[in-house]
Amino acid sequence: MTDPALATRAPGAKSWDAAAVVVAACTGLVIVIFAIFGLLVWQAYASAGPRAEREAQASADLLAEEAQWLVGGALTLITHLSTDALRNPAQITTADKPELDQLLKTLPADVELAYYDANGDVRFGTPFMLPQSIAAARFFTNLAGATEWTITAQPLAGRQTPGIILAKRIERPDGDGPAGAVVLAIDTAFLERHWTAQDLGQDSTISLIERSGAVVARYPALTGPLNVGTQPGFVSAAAADSGTYWSDSSPADGVARVVGFRHIPALNLIALASISRDTVYAGILNSTLIVLALLGPIALALLLGSIQIAREIRRREATMARLSEAVAQNEVLFREIHHRVKNNLQSVRALLQLQPIPREIKADMGQRIAAMSAVHEQIYRSSDFRSVSVKDYLGNLIENIRVGQSTEVEIHLDLEDVAVDKDTATPLALIVNEVISNAFKHAFSDGRAGTLNISLKREGDRGHLIVEDNGVGFDPAAPAKGIGHKLIAALTQQIDGEASFSSGQGSRFDLTFPLAPAAG
Question: Of 158, 181, 249, 364, which one is least surrounded by beta carbons within 10 A?
């Protein structure tokens, strides 16, 4: 017989068993987990760039404010010193040092101050850490022309890092050319403090650069002069007030960086803050590797576990298939056995009819064999070999008994669908056969019309069979003839039942017997 579920499947369609579903579900779960993880990593990488740009821009803005405050204050100071009563370098003496020191303390950085005459020779310094002569310095040459003040980078005497040099021309009182210059050197250590406070990561830098691209100050410090004016990123930065750009390779050290910039118009400088690209993505990479190190074994264990579970499911399915096949074979064997028993009983009944014995005995024996045959027929037609439906085979049995009997007798059946154990079915069938046969034989022996009522009801865990007629009745005290009553008594005892006969307006037979336990 074809399974309906298989019959409705489209031709060529592939069915998935439980093992395949488990492996597919676990594989799908792993794929979904890694897809989500990949999406999170992609989002982290996508957001890392803009976040680095914001950090670089914020650091450049802070550097610009600090530089404008410091360098702007220094420029204001040297402008004052170049125009007050001390503007003639030749007239400045050591007695002026306390006043100059007090003025320099107003600046939030280590500074050096010196006065130079028109020849570029130092006349006064606090202390003398600047060069003794600046005659060959380009910025001094510029001051001799049209430039009133300048800012540049130059190594400080006794220092490992260059300083920011601010120089202001001192005019002669008679207006006949410059009398010299006031030079202020600012130590770039303030850049280190700013860099440390910003914590932009390894290989990050901060710089102050002229619009021409000349680096005035940088941390970490450069080993020599540097001009970035031709760099593509700086060219675009020089044309805007602020912003960010990505540098593929720094001209100072070759490191790729994210650069934020801010112009300082009053000083003609540009403040730059840069973050290494490796630093930008290093945290994400490390986190990704750590999560992968955790997810990898979990995913592998999940897949291996699903494969093992699938193998176990297939092994059990194979075992269940073998068991189902064995059960199916047993069912076929049981059906075949009961079918053969039924056929053999029919053969015995046919042989019995050929025997030279009284007809009445043949009829009684044949009917009893038919009763047993009906039970076996009911069993092999059923799919349950543990119990037998009483209603089905009693109905067939009663109809078989009625055939050949008086048609004036009406049979009323009220049979509830109850089941008995297979070992109870045959004795019960023989009891019913004897009782109904006796009713036709004795209660309606003179051919009278009458009614035979047969009912079967469930009463708890027992069945109650009643066979009642309105025939001639009988004397319960009279001795029984034949083997019918003895057979009924023996069969009743065999099925652990209780039977009784009574007579009034007709006769009545009551039988209670155990039912098969409910399935489940």
Answer: 158
Cross-sheet strand order for the sheet of 111-117: 122-126, 111-117, 178-187, 162-171, 149-155
- H-helix or E-strand containing 178? strand 178-187
3-state per-residue secondary structure call for 113-142: EEEEECCCEEEEEECCCCCCECCCCHHHHH
Sorted by where each starts, the structural domains of the chain and their CATH numbers stand as: 57-279 (3.30.450.20), 390-514 (3.30.565.10)
Give the separation between CA 170 and CA 148, rounded to whole angstroms.
Answer: 9
Q: Specify the DSSP element, H or E, that contains 236.
A: helix 232-238
Instruction: Dump pLDDT digits (tens) for 359-389.
Output: 777 667 776 777 677 666 666 566 666 777 8
pLDDT in tens, 207-218: 888 888 888 888
488 within 8 A of 433, measured Cβ to Cβ: no
Peptide bond into 514 cis (omega under 30): no
Structure-token match 């096949």, residue found: 325
- Beta bridge partners, 243, equal 261
Query: What letter would DSSP give residue 420?
Result: E
> How many Å is the Cα radius of gyration of the chain?
58
435 close to 392: Cβ distance less than 8 angstroms = no
What's the rounded Cα separation, in Å, for the pair 192 and 210? 19
Q: Are 151 and 165 in contact (CB under 8 A)?
A: yes
Characterize the bridge pairing of strands 498-504 and 506-514. Answer: antiparallel
**Is the pLDDT score of 244 beyond 80?**
yes
The pLDDT tens digits of the residues spanning 444-491 come to 776 778 888 999 999 988 999 999 988 877 766 666 666 778 888 898
CA pair distance 203, 256, nearest whole angstrom: 9
pTM for this one? 0.53
| CA–CA gap between residue 398 and residue 431 (Å, rounded) | 12
- The single residue listed with the structure tokens 């297979």 is 422
> How large a percentage of the chain has pLDDT more than 90?
10
